[in-house]
Design brief:
Distance between the termini: 9 Å
Shape: globular
Largest sheet: 4 strands, antiparallel
CATH superfamily: Monooxygenase component MmoB/DmpM
CATH architecture: Alpha-Beta Complex
Order of helices and strands: EHEEEHHEEE
Strand order of the largest sheet: 2-3-1-5
Helix content: 10-25%
Structural class: alpha+beta
Strand content: over 45%
């Protein structure tokens, strides 16, 4: 299971919305975080979120023990099972 945590603040809401548009991805809440999960990879396109670079690069709150970030650049955030 791939799990990404993003702090639930207005600036990061678009990240969760874009992730939730993928039918293979589930977005829930755990404490003050969006919990974005999937059986396989999670890919979020930065341009689709409308996030500016500073917000984009600070959006990740963490990943689950069995997940790892394989891409986090100006184009996309990709998290995969470890």
């Amino acid at each position: 299971m791939t799990v990404l945590y993003v702090l639930d603040v207005p600036e990061n809401t678009a990240v969760a919305k874009v992730a939730a548009a993928d039918p293979a991805v589930t977005v829930g809440k755990i404490g003050p975080y969006f919990e974005i999960s999937a059986a396989g990879p999670i890919v979020v396109d930065r341009r689709a979120t409308g996030c500016r670079h500073a917000v984009w690069y600070s959006a990740v709150g963490g990943v689950a023990r069995d997940s790892r970030i394989t891409q986090h650049d100006k184009d996309a955030l990709r998290v995969e099972p470890a």
